[in-house]
Structures are given as structure tokens and as C-alpha cells.
Amino acid sequence: MMEFIAQNMAPIMFASLILFMLIGYPVAFSLAANGLMFFCIGVFLTPYSGGAINLAWPLLYALPDNFYGSRVMSNDTLLAIPFFTFMGIVLERSGMAEDLLDTIGQLFGPIRGGLAYAVIFVGALLAATTGVVAASVIAMGLISLPIMLRYGYDRRLASGVIAASGTLAQIIPPSLVLIILADQLGRSVGDMYAGALIPGLVLTVLYAGYILIVSIFRPKMMPALPLEARTLGHGVMSLLVALVATVAISYAAYRYLAPAHGDNADILGATLGVIFIYVVAIADRSLNINMMSRLAQQVIIVLIPPLALIFLVLGTIFLGIATPTEGGAMGAVGALIMAAVKGRLSLDVIKQALTSTTRLSSFVLFILIGARVFSLTFYGVNGQIWVEHLLTSLPGGEVGFLIGVNLLVFLLAFFLDFFELAFIIVPLLAPAADKLGIDLIWFGVLLGVNMQTSFMHPPFGFALFYLRSVAARVPYLDRLTGKTIQPITTGQIYWGAVPFVCIQVIMIGLTIAFPQMVMHYKGTVVDPGNIDYKVPDVPGLSPLGEPPPAKDGATPPANDLSQPPSFGDAPPAKPAAPPTDLSQPPSFN
User: Fold this and answer.
1) CA 430 – CA 405 distance, rounded (Å)
2) How far apart are CA 356 and CA 464, in angstroms?
3) What's the whole-model pTM score?
4) Residue 210 half-sphere exposure, CB side, CA atoms within 13 Å?
5) Which of 70, 104, 132, 271 could form a disulfide with 88, with the two C-beta atoms 3.0–4.6 Å apart?
């Protein structure tokens, strides 16, 4: 019995960890306690393990180095987490989400499902600026859910699209999940951001495509915004003219700057075009020129600042100007400036942002410390070898491995959130994926899309809890229409999430089927087998392997390999020296 337990310590340890978390113990303490408990057990069982356990008491001296070394306290990559969290909380408190939802809702209002499209679009913008799921879901739940219920949207659809759009912050950079995944996989955060950008945009398009299909076949579920609710009036044509003018100015600036700035001319030209139209819109509103429609003014003034912040953060990272940590710091400063310009920056807002940032950063840090204790013991009982053999022996090779791993993560996401999955599961999966030759950036983005479902899984999805906390629980009187609005039930929130979970599963399949969506981060890959080596012709030298041409144009004779090689014409023969007379003494004159 002792030998059996000693030789199967790794699966027993992993099963015990899952049991502790299901009982309800905090994840960080479950990891640390599980690691220390099995470390003590493993030391006593080492003689019975037949070499399967490599634990000894002095190994505990490695824990302080794990805590204060490059893995936790000295990890520069993890510095980006508090910066991006602070940026997201400040932007959420600054009212940016409210302005975006109101403006984009007015823009899409005349079409069926316009408010749903606005929620998806704003969710993608908030994801690219905040990177925090809780902030996005709560902000859109407070602002857009009452409006959607006011104008007759189906409750399941409204709650589902809000929860799903908020979870886009999981996969669209600058996502906190991608930072954690890059750290756990030992890869660059910039590469992870570049690889995840297209899958995040494709997922956004899939959400919008679902709304389009429902609006065609079930139009009563999402009516258009009534005319009296479109307070900004008409003006789409004015907005299109402003867009065309921006493109024209950007192109002219690009042609002017190209000779001097080369590859950076396109970015500089686009920046000048956007700044020009933004200044024009502000001047048009301030001076009452009325050259633009109110809708065009509002869209330009509201959209450009968050887009500029996105470029400040992601653009500098992708261009190699800043590291993710530096980009997060610039984003935090930019968020403070935006809030100050809107007159919504106060000491109370800064306190709330700092409190939320400290809480989330401490949460991540304690889980990471607990994971280091767990991994010390797990590796000491050769747990990584057990996991590697278990996963690499799955039928189907690489495809079988990917299907099995995604099913595992999908099922565990019912009970664990993305931080727990990233710190517990990913370090166990990465060595097996690397051994199979799977690109770890692609593997990380695939896991990121899969972990996104952890926010949407009924009944434990955190996005559903966030929405439940701000959705009406009792009937209330709408302040504009005077009608009584019925509350949203928990069941309606759960059923509304199901179609979007299915869309996320489809996105996992698309990422596996079309890996180039992620692999583009490598740029153009050169195949060494297709490189054509050419030796330039040099006057006076013959091609390699050929005899030199005859001077008179005749066919050169075949090489005589019995003689030493000749390197050109032979030099003239020197006269022979007279023979030495050895009968006489030598002369030194």
C-alpha cells in the first residue's frame, strides 16, 4: 500500500487539490497547503517510491528564492497587471463607457438590434482600453440593460450580449489573462498580444453576426430605437463626409512625409488626419458653426480619445517602442488625463481605483505564491512527467492533444476562474505542448479563448454574477416611459449566456483550424530549403568545377589528374647552378 501511494503521488496530489477547491477553500491557500502537506508525506514515502519521489527537507530552502526571484516578486512582466487594472478602473469611473454606449446606440439606433450592436462594439473598445472584465460588464449592465428593457428587447438576449461583450476583455489586448499566460508559458507579452488581436476581432464579428441572424429571423426580440429616442437626430452622411476627409488628409500627409520618414509615414499621416478632424469637431461645437451634424460631432469627440489611448498602449507595444509594462504605465497616465479633461477626476475616484488595483494585484500575487509552493512538491514527485506522458499518449497526435486539452480546460472552467486555470493547469500543459512541437504563443491564445468561457459558464460564470449584481431584482417604474419594467431572473441570465458560450466554442475550433490567425505574429517565415544561392561571376575566374577556357578559343584539354595541379602559366626556368667542388675547402667570400 505504501509503495502504491508513493508511486502514484502525482495524481493523488492533483485530485486532492481539486477536492480542496470544490470544498470551498481559497485557491491560494489550497495550493500552498496542498503543496506543504504532500511535501511532508513525500519525504517520508521517498524510500518506498523506487526513485519516483525526489524530496528532502533541505529542498524547502528553495522556497524563498522562488518567492523573491524572477518568478514572483522580481518578475517585471507582472508589473503590467496593476498598471492596466488602474487604467481600466479610472476609465470606468470617468464615464467613458456611458458616453460610448449613448453615442454608439444613437448611431446604430435606426436598425433592428442597434443597441445590441452598440453593446458589442463598445465592449470591444472597453476591452482594448480597460482589459478588466468586471468593469466592462458592470458598466454596460448599469447603463445599457435598462435602455434595452425599456424599448422591448428580449431579456435573455439583452443579458447574454452584455455578459458576452464584457468577456471580450479576456482575449482582446491588453488583457490581464494574456499577461499571465505569457508569463506562465515563458513567452513575450508583446508576441502574445499580437497573436491574440485577430482572434479577438473575429470573435467580436461572430457576436455581431449572431445578432444579425436573430434580427432577421426573430425581429421582435430586438426592435429598432424609436424616433423620439434618437436625441442626436440624423447625420450619418455628415459623419461619412468627415471620414472621407480624414482619409484624404491622412493620405496627403503620408505622401508628403514618406520621403523623410519612410515606414513610419503611414502612422504619422493617420495621426495627423485624426487630430485634424478631432480639432474641427471641437471647434464646430464650441463656436456653433454647425458645419457637422450633432451626431457626427458626438461620434468624433467621443470615439477618438479611447482610440488614441488604444494606440498609445497597444501601438507602442506592437511597434517595439515600449514594453507591456511601459505601455501600461502610459495607459494609466492617459486614463488620468482623459478623466481630468472630462472633469471627472477626483480624489475619491483615485482612491477607488487604487483600492481595486491593490485588491486584484494581491489576489494574483497570493495565487502565484501558492502555485510556487504547489509546483515545488509536484515537480519533486515527478508530476510533470506524469502529466506529459498522460497528454502525449492521447490518440490522434497533435490534434488529439489539442482536443483533449481544450475539453479539460472547458470542463474545469465550470469550477475555476481564469487566474486559477492559468496558474495551476497551464504550467502542466506547456511542457507537453512544447514536446509535440506546438507553438506556445498559438497554444496560449487558444487557451485564452477557451478560458474566456469560464466567465460565461452557468452556473459559476463570474460575468453572470457581475450582471446579476446590477440587474433589477424587483419590478421598477421606468423614469421616461412611466411603465413598469419586470425584473430579470437568474434563469434568463443563464439561458442568455448559452448561445454565446457556443460561439466561443466555435471560435476555439476556428483557431485550431486556421492557426495563421495567431501565427502572423512571426511575420514572413523563410524556408531555408527554397533559398537559391548564386555565386557572382568574377572576371578572370572560372565557375567552380570547370576548367579554365583556352586562350585561342579551342576546346581545353581534359585535366590530367596524375600530375600536380597547375595554377596558371609556369614561370621561366632559372639557369642551373654549377656543381659544388667538394675536394676544396669552402669559401665564404
Assistant:
1) 11
2) 20
3) 0.75
4) 24
5) 132
Q: Contacts by 356-363 with C-beta closer than 8 Å and gap 24+?
A: 356/85, 356/89, 357/82, 357/85, 357/86, 357/89, 358/82, 360/81, 360/82, 360/85, 361/81, 361/82, 361/85, 363/28, 363/419
- Report whether 184 contacts 429 (CB < 8 A): no
Comparing CA positions, the residue from 226, 251, 225 lying closest to residue 108 is: 225
| SS3 state of residue 515 | coil
Query: DSSP class of residue 465?
Result: H
**Which stretch of DSSP H or E encloses residue 485?**
strand 484-485
pLDDT tens-place string over residues 265-305: 887 888 889 899 999 999 988 888 888 888 888 888 888 88
Q: What is the pLDDT of residue 536?
A: 58
Question: Distance (Å, rounded) from C-alpha 113 to C-alpha 512?
Answer: 31
Cα(414)–Cα(458) distance, rounded to whole angstroms? Answer: 7
Nearest alpha-carbon partner for 442 in 185, 229, 91: 185
Q: What is the pLDDT of residue 441?
A: 92
pLDDT in tens, 27-45: 788 888 888 888 888 888 8
pLDDT tens by residue, 482-517 = 778 888 888 888 898 899 999 999 999 999 889 898
β-bridge partners, 484: 477
C-alpha cell at 418: 481564469
Check if the beta carbon of residue 184 is closer than 8 Å to that of residue 75. no
Query: Which residue is it, cell 523506487?
Result: 50
In the numeric block, which cell numbers belong to residue 536?
557572382
- Looking up cell 506592437, which residue turns up? 318
Query: b/e per residue, 40-66, with b = 16+ CB within 10 A?
Result: ebbbebbeebeebbebeeeebeebeeb
In this structure, what are the phi and psi dihedrals at residue 484, rounded to the nearest 5 degrees? -85, 125
